[in-house]
Write a structure and sequence with these properties.
The chain contains 18 helices and 33 strands. The protein is an alpha/beta fold and 632 residues long. Bound molecules: adenosine-5'-triphosphate and magnesium ion. Adenosine-5'-triphosphate binds next to strand 20, strand 26 and strand 27.
C-alpha cells in the first residue's frame, strides 16, 4: 500500500476512509453518520453507532481464539508470571464486572483505579468498559496529593486500589496513600475496593467504606454480566496528562472512535496482527499503557505483555528475555528506558533469540540520535520514534510499516498518522512555515477518531488550552517543529522551553541534542537561567555514561561547551555546565525543567509531587552550591 495515498485519503475523504476502518470493530448498531462537525472544534465520530470496548477486546475473540494468550502479566517484583487466555480473560472480567455492579456502579459512573502493572488492573479497566462505567487510572507512583486532585476532578463512585506496589523489591503500601487522599478530597468515593496481593497484609480497613475484592468475587464468581452498549460518543475513560507543565488535564476519550483508532493503529503502525505479540513496557497509568497494554492489542486479538519491574531486574536483559520467551513482534518503550539500558552492558542486547522481534517503537519524549543509533545497532532491529500526547491517545507522527515502510530518519518521528492533518505554523505570522523553518505543530480540526473529545467537565478549558493560540481554529500541540522537504517532522521541544539569550531565541532541545552528541554524555537537560546582562543564559545539567574523577568531569564539561559552540554557534554556548548523577524527572520519565530552572534561579522548585526521585533534586542543590564544572 502507498503511505502517501493512504494518508491523503484519510484527510480528503475522511468519511469514506473512516467508514472503512470502522469495519474492523464490532458494532451492536452501526453508525448513522460517520462524522458530525457542526460545533467546531467539537466533533463526533460514528454518531448513532453502538458498541463496547470490552466486547471488542474480549467477547469477540473468545469463539475464534479462546485458548490463545490474551494477556501475560510478568512481575519481577513478586516473581510471578500469569498467562491468561482470552477465555480466562472473559471470566476474570465478568467476575470483576459483577463485583462492580454489586457495589452499585453503572453506566456513566466514574471509577478511579490506583494499581500497579498487575493483571487485575487490566481486568478492572475492562470490567468498567463492560458496564459503561468511566475509568480513570491514576499512576500508582503518584502520592496522595495527586490522587486527591484527580479524585476531586473525576468524583468517582468507587476507587479500586491494590494493597501495595513494589519497586526494586521495596514494597510501597498503597492503602495509606488512598486513605490520605480520601481524607484530603472534597468528593471521596463511597467505596474503596482493595485488590490484595498480600504485600501489605495488615492494611487498615475503614469500616463501611472498604471492601475486599477476593471476598466479593467469591460471592459473584461465574456470573455473566451483559455488555452495556454505548453510543459511540459516550465517555469511555478519563486520563490525566502528566502534569509536566502544570495542573493535569482530564483527557476524555470516547468509545467508538477510540476502538476504531486502536484497531487501525495496531495493523498499520505497529504491524501486529491477530495472534501476534506486543510488549509495551509502559505503566497502565499512562496513555501508552491504556492504548498499547490494554485496548490496542486486545481489540486486535493479539497477545499483550504487561511487565511490573525495573528494566534492570534481575539484569538489564529482562526485556529481551521476555521478547524471546513470548516471541514478541513489536516492543514499545521510551527513550528514558533505553538510556537506562545504555548505562549497562550492551551485550545484554544480543543474549537472547530475538528472531521474531521486528520493531522497537519509542515514545514520550525526544529520542536523541546517539540513543537511537545505540539501540538500533545493538539490537539490529528497526527503531521507530513515535510522537504523541496523552490528548491524542495514539501516534501523531510515526512511520507505518503495516502500510508502507518509509526510510527512518533519526531525529524525526516521521510522518503524519492517518486522520492527522498536520501543519507547522509560524508563531509570529500565523502562516504555514516553509520547509526547514521552525514553527508550532498544529492539527487542523476535526481531530481524528481516538483523540480526546474534551477536557472532563470543562469544555472551556479544552478550548482555551488547545484551540486559542491562533486566529484560525487550530489544535496547538504546544510543541515546536520543523518539517523537511520530504515531509518528515522534527520536534524541537515544548513551546515553553524556548529561552531568550541577548535577543536570540534558542530552543533548549537543540542545545540538549548537541550536548548529547558528546560520546561521554548519557543525558543532558538545558534550561534558561536569568542573567542581568543577556536576559537569559543556557545552563546545562548533564549525566555521564561513566562517572569519572572531578578532573576528568571538568574536562568533559569543557568539551561540551565547545561542542555546542561548534555545532550551534557561539550564542548558544552554555554559560555553565553541571555534571550530576541523575536528572530530576517526572514518574513518566520526562525532564522537570521548570524545577531545575527554579533551583538554578534560587526559587522554590514548585509542585514536586510528580517527581520520581527526590534525591535528584537534592543533588542539583548540592552541585549548584559547589559550583559549575565548566563555565563561570
Ligand atoms: P502536561 O501536558 O500535563 O504538561 P505532558 O505534556 O508531559 O504533560 P504527555 O501527554 O504525557 O504529558 O506528553 C506529551 C508530550 O511529550 C508531547 O507534547 C511532547 O512534548 C513530548 N513527546 C512525546 N513524544 C515525543 C517524541 N517522540 N519526540 C519528542 N517529544 C515527544
Ligand atoms: Mg502536554
Amino acid at each position: 500500500m502507498d503511505y502517501a495515498e493512504f494518508h491523503r485519503r484519510s484527510i480528503e475523504e475522511p468519511e469514506a476512509f473512516w467508514a472503512e476502518q470502522a469495519k474492523a470493530i464490532h458494532w451492536h448498531k452501526p453508525p448513522t453518520s460517520i462524522l458530525e462537525y457542526d460545533n467546531p472544534p467539537f466533533r463526533k465520530w460514528f454518531v448513532g453507532g453502538e458498541t463496547n470496548l470490552c466486547y471488542n477486546a474480549v467477547d469477540r475473540h473468545v469463539a475464534e481464539r479462546g485458548d490463545q494468550l490474551a494477556l501475560v502479566a510478568i512481575s519481577t517484583e513478586t516473581d510471578e508470571t500469569r498467562e491468561i487466555t482470552y477465555r480466562q480473560l472473559y471470566r476474570e472480567v465478568n467476575d470483576f464486572a459483577a463485583v462492580l455492579k454489586s457495589l452499585g456502579v453503572g453506566r456513566g459512573d466514574r471509577v478511579v483505579i490506583y494499581m500497579p502493572n498487575m493483571a487485575e488492573a487490566v481486568f478492572a479497566m475492562l470490567a468498567c468498559a463492560r458496564i459503561g462505567a468511566v475509568h480513570s487510572v491514576v499512576f500508582g507512583g503518584f502520592a496522595s496529593h495527586n490522587l486527591a486532585l484527580r479524585i476531586d476532578d473525576a468524583q468517582p463512585k468507587l476507587l479500586i486500589a491494590a494493597d501495595a506496589g513494589s519497586r526494586g523489591g521495596k514494597v510501597i503500601p498503597y492503602k495509606p496513600l488512598v486513605d490520605a487522599a480520601c481524607a484530603q478530597a472534597q468528593h471521596p468515593p463511597a467505596h474503596v475496593l482493595v485488590v490484595s496481593r498480600g504485600l501489605d497484609p495488615d492494611y487498615t480497613r475503614v469500616e463501611g467504606r472498604d471492601v475486599d475484592y477476593a471476598t466479593l468475587r467469591a460471592e459473584h464468581a461465574g456470573e455473566d454480566v451483559p455488555v452495556e452498549w454505548l453510543e459511540s460518543n459516550e465517555p469511555a475513560y478519563l486520563l490525566y496528562t502528566s502534569g509536566t507543565t502544570g495542573k493535569p488535564k482530564g483527557v476524555q476519550r470516547d468509545v467508538g472512535g477510540y476502538a476504531v483508532a486502536m484497531a487501525l493503529s495496531m495493523w498499520a503502525i505497529y504491524d501486529v496482527k491477530p495472534g501476534q505479540v506486543m510488549f509495551s513496557t509502559s505503566d497502565v497509568g499512562w496513555a501508552v499503557g491504556h492504548s498499547y497494554n490494554v485496548y490496542g492489542p486486545l481489540v486486535a486479538g493479539a497477545t499483550s505483555i504487561l511487565y511490573e519491574g525495573l528494566p534492570t531486574t534481575p539484569d538489564a536483559g529482562i526485556w529481551w528475555k521476555i521478547c524471546a520467551d513470548y516471541g514478541v513482534r513489536t516492543i514499545f518503550s521510551s527513550p528514558t528506558g533505553i538510556r537506562v539500558l545504555k548505562k549497562q552492558d550492551a551485550s545484554f542486547l544480543t543474549r537472547y533469540d530475538l528472531s521474531k522481534l521486528e520493531y522497537l517503537f519509542l515514545a514520550g519524549e525526544p529520542l536523541d540520535e546517539p540513543t537511537a543509533h545505540w539501540i538500533n545497532e545493538g539490537l539490529g532491529k528497526t527503531v521507530i520514534d513515535n510522537y504523541w500526547q496523552t490528548e491524542t491517545g495514539w501516534p501523531v507522527l510515526t512511520l507505518m510499516p503495516g502500510v508502507e515502510m518509509k526510510p527512518v530518519k533519526f531525529g524525526s518521528p516521521g510522518l503524519p498518522s492517518p486522520g492527522y492533518d498536520l501543519r507547522v505554523i509560524d508563531e509570529a505570522t500565523g502562516e504555514e512555515a516553509a520547509p526547514g523553518q521552525k514553527g508550532v505543530l498544529v492539527i487542523q480540526p476535526p481531530l481524528p477518531p481516538g483523540c480526546m473529545t474534551t477536557v472532563w467537565n470543562d469544555d472551556q478549558r479544552f478550548l482555551s488550552s488547545y484551540f486559542s493560540h491562533f486566529s484560525e481554529l487550530l489544535y496547538s500541540s504546544l510543541d515546536w517543529a520543523i518539517r523537511d522537504e520530504d515531509g518528515y517532522t522534527f520536534i524541537l521541544g515544548r513551546t515553553d522551553d524556548v529561552i531568550n539569550v541577548a535577543g536570540h531565541r534558542l530552543g533548549t532541545r537543540e542545545i540538549e541534542e548537541s550536548i548529547s552528541s558528546h560520546p561521554a554524555v548519557a543525558e543532558a537537560a538545558v534550561i534558561g537561567v536569568h542573567d542581568e546582562l543577556k536576559g537569559q543564559v543556557p545552563v546545562v545539567f548533564a549525566t555521564l555514561k561513566q562517572a569519572g574523577t572531578a578532573g576528568s568531569q571538568g574536562e568533559t564539561a569543557k568539551q561540551m561547551l565547545q561542542t555546542v559552540a561548534d555545532q550551534l554557534g557561539a550564542v548558544a554556548r552554555p554559560a555553565r555546565v553541571y555534571v550530576v548523577n541523575a536528572l530530576p524527572k517526572t514518574r513518566s520519565g520526562k525532564l522537570l525543567r521548570r524545577s531545575l530552572q527554579a533551583l538554578a534561579e534560587s526559587r522554590d522548585p514548585g509542585d514536586l509531587s510528580t517527581l520520581d526521585d527526590p534525591n535528584a533534586l537534592d543533588e542539583v542543590r548540592r552541585v549548584l552550591e559547589r559550583g559549575a564544572d565548566a563555565g563561570q
